[in-house]
Each structure stands twice: as structure tokens, then as C-alpha cells.
Specification:
The protein has helices at about 5-30, 60-65, 90-95, 115-125, 145-150, 175-195, 210-215, 230-240, 260-275, 280-285, 290-300, 310-325, 335-355, and strands at about 45-50, 75-80, 105, 130-135, 160-165, 165-170, 205-210, 240-245, 250-255, 360, 365-370. The protein is α/β, with parallel strands linked by helices and about 375 residues long. It has two domains: about 5-25 and about 275-370, no CATH class; about 40-255, Spore Coat Polysaccharide Biosynthesis Protein SpsA, Chain A, CATH 3.90.550. The strands form three sheets. Strands 3-2-1-4-7-5-8 form a seven-stranded mixed sheet, with helices on both faces. It has a two-stranded parallel sheet with strand order 6-9. It has a two-stranded antiparallel ribbon with strand order 10-11.
Length: about 375
């Protein structure tokens, strides 16, 4: 047996074990999760900051979900950068229709970085009344037990609880492609890492105590990296604390998505991961089913393994993703397997594109992950 064939066999075996193992871990973790009715923190007052920029799919429903939380004491703070933002009238209507929930709309842009979302959040952070703070994107659909599910993951070692985005309600092939990336790929890996004690922050929903950032200069500490969630991960770990993820992620209704927009967003995230967590980014090139299935096919052609193993591996590989999605009630349709295959075919291309460039566009801002200083303002 040649060294090349031996290494190929070892790679296929390890890739399969990691793939199926991560799916089993996340499935068991999600199904076993139950809210702890004896939460040691009780239900402390919480400030919820929601940065808003423009009209997004189902925005009335996602922003409106914040008014229906089953929680005794919380406030909503909507942060909008521009007075001409088209989302403002809708926010005012929601506030008027739900007078029992304390809510404020703050308008203005504090340029502490070139990160537009972070600049939009500064005024909300300063205005928040409570010690416990949630920063939640405008396109997150908040279930009634949203805050309790965050608190359920808090313990003496925790400094931040977050949730990766979980794509739901896709319309068309572009949105299916985005679901393929968000759900059984990115969310699965993040939840598996959290189960192993290596949780990373995800900016869609971040829940923390104010003091955990005040040790590093307050919300301005999140300007230390190109993405606020990467900066939050490093700040919390510098405190000797852990980042933990909710057991079941919160949904993000996608609606219709253009493939070009989906690809642009994935490229932006990949380039940000490249500079914020380079060691983990390097391993992304080999993730997905493309290389294990292709190498197994090559081994079969060289009579190194039986011919039926490669097709069986392909069926089992994507069958496991279907098992995960169905068991955790994540989005699954007849289009999903094709979307997963296309995603895995695109992963090496995405990785190479991320390595070969530094620029991306974010909310109309042209940014560069290498040249731009995130501690300087965009105006400068």
C-alpha cells in the first residue's frame, strides 16, 4: 500500500468521524436541552438593543416579536443611524401599538469605528438602564422565551451567551443556498464547538452583563476587531470567562435572497474570520463533503476500497444533515440536499476568494480587513 493511499484512507475516515460525530453531538445537545426552572439568576431586568438599518424581509414581524416576550422586566431600545431611515415609521407604529412595553427609538451615528452596526449601537449601550444587555439584530425572530433561553445558559464561568443565525422561511434557490450555509453547516459547527467548551460569539444575538465589557473600556472594546462578535469573544476570554451558545438557535426569516448577495455576505464573513481567527479559518478549506467523497471515489478507482463505499458515504453524509435538520426542526425541503451539495462544491472557492482579497462592502461602507483601523472613525 502506497503512502498516498494510506493518507487518503486516513483522511476519509477522520473526516467522516468528525462529520457524523458533530451531527450526533449537536442533535443530542439540542434535544436534551430544557429550560432550568430554578435559574440561579432569577429574571433580572434586561435592556434589549436592536440596531435597525432599512427595510428587511418580515421586519414588522421580527421587530414586533420583541414586544411579545414572556418576561417580567425588560426594555426595548431601537437604534437607527439616520433620521431618513425607512424603517422608522414602522418602529413608531409598533411602539404606539404596544404601550405596555417600555421602548425607545434613538437616532444618530457615533463614529467610534468603521463598523456601521457598532456605531449604531453605541447610543443604545449608553442609554440602557439595566446591567444585563442583549444586542439583537433586527432580522432575528424572538420567541416568547427568548431571554429565558439566554439566561438558561448562564453560569459562574459565563461572560457572554449568544446564538448563531438559523435560516428559516426561504423563498427561492438563493435563500435555500443561504440556509445550507447557515444551518447544518455554520450553526452546526458553532454549536458543536460550544458543546466542547470552545464557544465563539455570534453577533446576531449577544447577551452579557455590562461590567464584562466595561473592564475593557465599554462598548468601544468591540471596535478592536473588524467584527464586533470576534472582538467580544476575545474580550470575554481575556476576562477568564466562557462564551456559550443557546441550545437551540433563534430563527432568521430569509424570504427571497439573490445568490450574488448571499455569496457577498459569505465572502465578507470568510475574510473577517481569516483575520480574526486565522487558525480556525485555515481548517475550513477541508470542511464539507467535497474532498472526502472525491477522495473515496479516487480510492475506489484504484481498488483501494470497495466500489460501493464512495456512493454510500455520499448518501450517508447528506443523510446525516437531513437527520439533524429534521430532529431539531430546522428548515428542510426537497431542495435542501441539492443546496448542501452546491454549498460543499463552493466551499473551496469561497476559501480561495477569502485568501485572495481583503475588501468587502458592509451596509454601503467599503471596508478592508487589513488596511482599515477599526479604532479610528470612518470620518477620519
Amino acid at each position: 500500500m502506497s503512502i498516498a493511499i494510506l493518507l487518503a484512507q486516513i483522511f476519509c475516515l477522520l473526516a467522516a468521524l468528525i462529520h457524523f460525530g458533530s451531527i450526533a453531538l449537536v442533535t443530542l445537545r439540542g434535544r436534551a436541552g430544557r429550560l432550568d426552572t430554578a435559574n440561579p439568576h432569577g429574571q433580572p431586568p434586561v435592556s434589549i438593543l436592536r440596531p435597525v438599518c432599512g427595510i428587511e424581509h418580515a421586519i414588522d414581524r421580527t421587530l414586533g416579536s420583541g414586544f411579545g416576550l414572556d418576561y417580567p422586566d425588560y426594555e426595548l431600545i431601537f437604534c437607527v443611524a439616520s433620521a431618513s431611515d425607512p424603517a422608522i415609521p414602522g418602529i413608531r407604529r409598533l411602539m404606539a401599538a404596544n404601550p405596555a412595553v417600555p421602548a425607545r427609538l434613538l437616532i444618530g451615528d457615533d463614529r467610534i469605528s468603521i463598523n456601521p452596526k457598532l456605531n449604531n449601537l453605541v447610543k443604545g449601550w449608553d442609554a440602557a438602564k439595566h446591567e444585563w444587555i442583549v444586542m439583537t439584530d433586527s432580522n432575528v425572530l424572538m420567541p416568547p422565551n427568548y431571554i429565558d433561553r439566554m439566561l438558561d445558559r448562564w453560569d459562574a464561568t459565563t461572560g457572554l451567551v449568544c446564538s448563531p443565525p438559523l435560516g428559516s422561511e426561504p423563498e427561492g434557490y438563493g435563500a435555500e443556498f443561504e440556509c445550507a450555509y447557515l444551518n447544518t453547516y455554520q450553526a452546526r459547527w458553532q454549536l458543536a464547538a460550544d458543546a466542547l467548551g470552545q464557544g465563539f460569539a455570534q453577533g446576531k444575538s449577544m447577551f452579557l452583563r455590562r461590567e464584562n465589557l466595561d473592564r475593557h473600556g465599554g462598548i468601544a472594546a468591540l471596535a478592536a476587531d473588524p467584527a464586533e462578535d470576534a472582538a467580544a469573544t476575545k474580550a470575554i476570554r481575556a476576562n477568564g470567562q466562557r462564551v456559550r451558545l443557546v441550545r437551540q438557535p433563534f430563527a432568521q426569516p430569509l424570504g427571497a435572497r439573490a445568490l450574488r448577495a448571499v455569496w457577498s455576505r459569505q465572502l465578507r464573513w470568510a475574510r473577517l474570520r481569516r483575520v480574526t481567527f486565522p487558525a480556525f479559518f485555515c481548517m475550513e478549506f477541508l470542511t464539507g463533503g467535497l474532498f472526502p467523497i472525491a477522495i473515496a471515489t479516487w480510492l475506489a478507482f484504484n481498488d483501494a476500497i470497495p466500489g460501493w463505499i464512495a456512493p454510500l458515504l455520499a448518501v450517508a453524509w447528506y443523510g446525516a444533515e437531513a437527520f439533524l435538520a429534521k430532529n431539531l426542526d430546522w428548515h428542510y425541503s426537497r431542495r435542501s440536499p441539492l443546496a448542501w451539495v452546491l454549498r460543499d462544491l463552493s466551499l473551496p472557492v469561497l476559501w480561495i476568494a477569502a485568501v485572495c482579497g481583503n475588501g468587502f462592502e458592509w451596509r454601503g461602507n467599503q471596508m478592508d480587513v487589513k488596511k482599515d483601523s477599526l479604532l479610528a472613525t470612518e470620518a477620519d
